[in-house]
Amino acid sequence: MSVEVFYDDDADLGLIQGRKVAVIGYGSQGHAHALSLRDSGVDVVIGLPAGSKSRPKAEEQGLRVLTPAEAAAEADVIMILAPDTAQRGLYAEAIAPHLAAGKALFFGHGFNIRYGLIKPPADVDVAMVAPKGPGHLVRRQYVDGKGVPCLVAVEQDASGNAFGLALAYAKAIGGTRAGAIRTTFTEETETDLFGEQAVLCGGAAALVQTGFEVLTEAGYAPEVAYFECLHELKLIVDLMYEGGIARMRYSISDTAEYGDLSRGPRVIDSRVKEEMRKILGEIQSGEFAREWVAEDEAGRPNFAKWRAEGAAHPIEETGQKLRAMMSWVDRPITETA
Ligand SMILES: NC(=O)C1=CN([C@@H]2O[C@H](COP(=O)(O)OP(=O)(O)OC[C@H]3O[C@@H](n4cnc5c(N)ncnc54)[C@H](OP(=O)(O)O)[C@@H]3O)[C@@H](O)[C@H]2O)C=CC1
Ligand SMILES: CC[C@](O)(C(C)=O)C(=O)O
Ligand SMILES: [Mg+2]
Ligand SMILES: [Mg+2]
């Protein structure tokens, strides 16, 4: 099945330049969207609670900051870029009372719509512009005249041109420079959750930590283990990113390639694939969403415990020492937010 991809020439920037956009939240995605929308000539206002620690960051960039309710009342396109778990309460308190026919409600991820946590009225457009990359990269690419590919979806087309409006928004943040792919809220949500849990974040972090543990428990120096299991991963992934797995295999030695082909499937075996299928099933059935919402409502006890355990893993201390020797690597986490 082929996907539809849209580029700059397919999008009419005028559609979003003619609207007032409220960006609710000013974190990883929020700052990138807001600054790039503004630089694309769009009238932007930021919505943040009175005590939010993001307020000074937005104000330093010369953006106008209101409360979420004030911003939602003023704007006719409302992009929700607060944490997924905060969105349901935020929507009920600050956004729903200010939605009116003709307005548009936008998301950067489909979680709350896919799992029925937010149910917008029928007379507003509901769309998604989801960059396929972290917010800081979205902004950096925009500033460099490039873009991060986006997924664009429409859940509800009250105006008859919700997709055109979403494409215009994607253009304003640089997404159509790289390509905007049409999808659905369900496809974006389920694949995004699966990717971050099984491969990109959960899978990759567990693979790296486990490799590091096996080497150090066998008596090898943590510094050497760090290079082998974490540092060089970027170099290998960069090759995959540029030309796929085939390009990576072309660049590595024959010895590495034979080890890759003969041993890789033993590490990621049929048991791992079965577990990945179970994880996908939990996402599709809503089990993961229910678990995460309940964890959040309970004050995130497991999240805090697992986060602390991860931070205390010996690979972090080794990495901190080694990265201090690599001035070109130890960049601050955020540059613009
Ligand atoms: N991180 C990423 O790169 C990606 C994120 N997404 C999606 O984008 C959305 C935003 O995620 P992300 O950018 O990571 O979020 P962050 O955690 O980086 O930032 C959240 C922002 O929302 C603010 N905020 C918190 N609570 C509220 C509230 N009740 N009302 C208004 N603002 C609030 C925070 O303020 P404060 O500083 O005060 O906490 C902060 O400015 C999510 O839907 C996520 O799934 C999609 C693609 C990639
Ligand atoms: C991979 C994590 C992500 O899905 C992302 C940056 O795209 C997220 O939710 O942060
Ligand atoms: Mg993602
Ligand atoms: Mg995600």
TrEMBL record:
Q: Which Pfam families match?
A: KARI_C, KARI_N
KARI C-terminal knotted domain sequence ranges: 184-329
**Domain KARI N-terminal Rossmann: start-end pairs:** 3-183
Residues reported in the UniProt entry to bind substrate: S253
Which EC number(s) are documented for this chain?
1.1.1.86
Where, by residue number, does Mg(2+) 2 bind?
Answer: D192, E228, E232
InterPro entries xrefs: 6-PGluconate_DH-like_C_sf, KARI, KARI_C, KARI_N, KARI_prok, NAD(P)-bd_dom_sf
Picking any one GO biological process from the record gives: isoleucine biosynthetic process
From the UniProt record, which GO molecular function terms apply?
A: isomerase activity; ketol-acid reductoisomerase activity; magnesium ion binding; NADP binding
* Metabolic or biological pathway: Amino-acid biosynthesis; L-valine biosynthesis; L-valine from pyruvate: step 2/4; Amino-acid biosynthesis; L-isoleucine biosynthesis; L-isoleucine from 2-oxobutanoate: step 2/4
Q: Which residues form the active site?
A: H109
Q: Kindly list the GO CC terms recorded for this protein.
A: cytosol
Q: How is the cofactor bound?
A: Binds 2 magnesium ions per subunit.
Give the catalysed reaction(s), semicolon-separated: (2R)-2,3-dihydroxy-3-methylbutanoate + NADP(+) = (2S)-2-acetolactate + NADPH + H(+); (2R,3R)-2,3-dihydroxy-3-methylpentanoate + NADP(+) = (S)-2-ethyl-2-hydroxy-3-oxobutanoate + NADPH + H(+)
Positions of Mg(2+) 1 binding: D192, E196
Instruction: Name the NCBIfam families on file.
Output: ilvC, PRK05479.1, PRK13403.1
- Do you know which PANTHER family this protein is assigned to? KETOL-ACID REDUCTOISOMERASE, MITOCHONDRIAL (PTHR21371:SF1)
> What function does the entry list?
Involved in the biosynthesis of branched-chain amino acids (BCAA). Catalyzes an alkyl-migration followed by a ketol-acid reduction of (S)-2-acetolactate (S2AL) to yield (R)-2,3-dihydroxy-isovalerate. In the isomerase reaction, S2AL is rearranged via a Mg-dependent methyl migration to produce 3-hydroxy-3-methyl-2-ketobutyrate (HMKB). In the reductase reaction, this 2-ketoacid undergoes a metal-dependent reduction by NADPH to yield (R)-2,3-dihydroxy-isovalerate.
Q: What is this protein called?
A: Ketol-acid reductoisomerase (NADP(+))
Q: Which organism is it from?
A: Micromonospora chersina
